[in-house]
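User: Sequence in, structure out. Go.
Assistant: Echoing your sequence, followed by the C-alpha cells.
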Amino acid sequence: MASEDLIDVVIGKLGWYQALLLFLLIFGRSPTEFQLVNVVFILPNPEYICQGEEKNVTNLCPCEDPVYDTSIMSSVSSEFDLICERKHLASLGQSMLQVGILFGSVLYGYISDRFGRKTSCVLSLTTEIIFVALSAAVTEFWMFAICRFLIGASVGGTMLCTYVMVIELTGTSFRPLIPALAEAAFVICYMALPVIAYFLSDWKHLQLATSLPWLFVAAYYFVIPESPRWLITMGRKKEATAVLINMAKKQNKPTENIEAIVEKKYEELRQKEEKQYGTYIDLFRTPKMRTYTLITNFVWMCCSLTYFGVNQYIGRLQGNIYLNVLLSATSLIPGLVLVVIASRYLNRRLSMIISCCVAALSFLVFLIIPEGMPNVLLTFAIIGLMGAHASFVQAYLHTSEIFPTVVRNSALGLASVFARFGGFIAPFVVNVGIEWITIGIFSFLAFSAGVLCLFLPNTKDKELLNSISQVEQ
C-alpha cells in the first residue's frame, strides 16, 4: 500500500498548475540538452587541405597553411587550428565540459540543499545562457576552454536542480513518469540540433541560437515557487503553508487542513532533532546512508561509463553527419517507452537490474557474433546501448527517492561526480584496441551495477523521506 505523500494529500498528484511548472522547468533547461550533444558540430576533427610544398595534400601534418572544409560548419577546431600538434586541444575542449559538470554537480548540490531549490535552479539556468553566449565571443582558444568549463558547471547544476525540483513538486503516484519526461526533452533537443545546425554555417551562431532565446528563465525567480518539502525541512512552516495553499487554490483543491498537515510533517522532523540541511559528510555518517551512497555512486559510474563508451564505440559512422546525429537521437526513443513501462509497473530495484542485465547480456552476445554479420552486430550493440541508457535514466529517479530531502541534491551531486569519472574513463576503454577486452569491460560493469542494485531499497509508491533518521529506520 502506498504511503501518504505531502503533495498527493494536499494538491493531488498532478494538476494543471503543477504541469505548467514542470513544463517551464523542463523547457527552460533546453540549452543544457544542446550543450551535452553539440560537440560533434563545434569540436569535430576537421578536414583540411595543406597548401604547402606538397600542394593540395589532404590532412597533412605538419601543415602551416591549412584550408579547412567548412561545407558543414565552421568550428572551434577550424577557427583555432586544432590539428596536428594542437589536435589534443580539441579533446581538452571536450573534457572541460565534463570537468565543469563535475564541479557544478557538487557546488549546486550544496547550494540547493542549503539555500533552496528555486535559487539553485534559476542561478544555474541563467548563468548557463550567459556563459554559452560568451563562448561565442571569444578570440582565443584558452578563453573558449574557460567558458566551456563554466558552461559545464551550470549544466551540472541544471541537470540536478531542475530534476529534484520537479520531483519535489509532484506526488508519489506521478514520479514514475518524470524520468521519461526529462529524457524526452533531451531526445527532442538532440533531434532538433542537427536541424538547427543545418541552417547555420558558424559554430558561434549555433551557440547563440541555442542559448539566448532562453534568457526568459531569469524571470523564473518570480514565477516558480520554492519547494514546500524543502521549506518544511528548513523549519519555514509559514512559507511552506503559503506555497501549498497557493498551489491548492490554483487547482481548486481544499485548503482548510494544509496548515495542520505542514505542522504535522514539521513535528515529525523536530521530534527526531534533525538538522535542517545536510552536507556531503552526512551521506557517510550513518550505516544505511553510507551503504546507499557507496552503491549508488558505483552504479552511476558504471551506467555512465557503459552508456558513453558504447555510444562512442558504435557512433563512428560514415555518411551525412546531420542524418547520423538525427538517427542517434531517434534510437533512444524505444528505451524511453520501456523506462515508462518499467517505472510504472515494476519496482525500482527490479527495473534497474533488468536494464543493466539486458546491456550486459547484449554485449556478451555481441562478442560471439561473426564479423560477417554487420547488421546483427549493430542490432545487439544498439540493444546494449538502450539497456545502458535506460539504467542511467532510472538511476536518477531511484537515487532521488532513496535519499531524504535534507541531502537529496547533495546525493545526486556526488553520484553525478562519479558519473563524470565514468565518462572520463570511457574513451580509454574504447581505445584499448582489443575488441573483446573493451566489450568485456562494458559487460562486466553493467552486470556489476545490476548485482549491486539488489542491496538498494525499493522505493516505488513510497513517500519521499525528509530526514536521515527516517532512512535509517
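User: And one key feature?
Assistant: DSSP finds 22 helices and three strands in the chain.
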